[in-house]
Amino acid sequence: MSKYYDEARSFGEKYLAPFAREADQKGAFPREAIQALRENGYFGLVIPEAYGGQGQDIGAHAEVCTALAEWDASASLCYMMSNVGAYCLSLYAGEKLKQEILPKVASGEAILALAYSETGNGTHFYLPEMEEVTEDGYSILNGRKSFVTTAREADYYLTISRNVEDGSTNLWVVPSNTEGLSFESNYDGVGLRGNVSDPMVLKDAKIDHFYRIQGNGDGDRLIFLVGLASSSAGIAMAIAREATRYVKERTYSNGRSLGEIETVETNLAELYARAYAARETLFAAAYNVQSGAEDGFQNVNAARIVTTSAAVKNGSQGMRLVGGIGYVRGKNPMERLMRDSLGAQVMAPGYDVLRVWLGRQLVGLPYLKGID
Ligand SMILES: Cc1cc2nc3c(=O)[nH]c(=O)nc-3n(C[C@H](O)[C@H](O)[C@H](O)COP(=O)(O)OP(=O)(O)OC[C@H]3O[C@@H](n4cnc5c(N)ncnc54)[C@H](O)[C@@H]3O)c2cc1C
């Protein structure tokens, strides 16, 4: 396995794992974990070296996000969102905007979040209803984003709005101290509870055109899909790991352990095989995209389908192996992992939409249909 995965895996065990349970129980931002990632240069992973980053690409992003998700999927998701934002800025922002933001992210001083989803467009987050009115040198943004991972905690929020005059959609970076920016507090997730994914409101927020990102496209969409898939791949592997640990430790009065029962062993084999296949499919797809392979996008869609399904199946099967205490809150990590595994199904583009996208790609049609 590559050094990115191995290093991040060791790092996650030491600096993320100890805080995962508390963040889940309290539904609190994983502050210690994110601080450790800030201090150890992780937020600079995909930022070009010219801006103080490590200049890595989608493959390393997949490896690191997966390895971190094996220990705390909430912290990993907050981290991956910032990577996506940084990658998007690296690709599309003007030089001055890059100079202002990227070195701060690379050094861990600032982190980024993505505020795209809205209630009115649901899973079709690329069709914003947030309104934008152009004035001389700035725009006024009004609207509400329904879920923003790292809400309140990020320093800049990438958001998408629709220009009321010409109907164009535009991408912006909104600094956290912008007047008119506020958050509602209502995220009480079933899983991924450390994400603080609260709604964000922009009310008459005046954004200088300096903060407009010039382009947008598949480049950052792919790193986003890979990041979401990494979360599921990490959770699937964590479930295999925790189930194995548990069945070896769990003994009956007669001294016999669960791990000696053949049915339990074959269940473990299924958990591991599924997680391993999902992880390797994802890594292969991520490196395919990185190398510019023609079928890279459809490989990533396939990997996101495979990893989502692996995590959900492992969550259910893993909980069964842990038995009664796997169904009780806070007694065993399996219960949190099972809840965390479910999120990827609904995070846009969700499981059903992904299958539509991939199917359309396979028959040679444009993958985006809009809201039908
Ligand atoms: C933990 C968490 C963190 C999140 N973080 C962020 C974030 O940081 N930034 C952000 O912008 N958003 C974030 N989201 C929002 C997430 O992307 C939304 O859940 C998503 O936009 C789905 O919106 P919706 O629930 O309105 O789905 P809806 O549009 O109501 O869709 C519901 C379901 O209908 C089906 N469906 C809808 N349309 C189609 C179609 N065309 N084809 C096939 N099936 C379809 C699917 O099964 C879909 O799951 C987060 C969500 C969660 C749960």
TrEMBL record:
Protein name as annotated: Acyl-CoA dehydrogenase
Pfam families: Acyl-CoA_dh_1, Acyl-CoA_dh_M, Acyl-CoA_dh_N
MF (Gene Ontology): acyl-CoA dehydrogenase activity; flavin adenine dinucleotide binding
Entry keywords, A to Z: FAD, Flavoprotein, Oxidoreductase
Record-annotated Acyl-CoA dehydrogenase/oxidase C-terminal domain positions: 227-348
Residues covered by the Acyl-CoA oxidase/dehydrogenase middle domain: 113-204
Record-annotated Acyl-CoA dehydrogenase/oxidase N-terminal domain positions: 5-109
Cofactor(s) the protein requires to work: FAD
Source organism (scientific name): Facklamia languida CCUG 37842
Protein's UniProt keywords contain Flavoprotein: yes
InterPro entries: Acyl-CoA_Oxase/DH_mid-dom, Acyl-CoA_Oxase/DH_mid-dom_sf, AcylCo_DH-like_C, AcylCo_DH/oxidase_C, AcylCoA_DH/ox_N, AcylCoA_DH/ox_N_sf, AcylCoA_DH/oxidase_NM_dom_sf
Keyword Oxidoreductase attached: yes
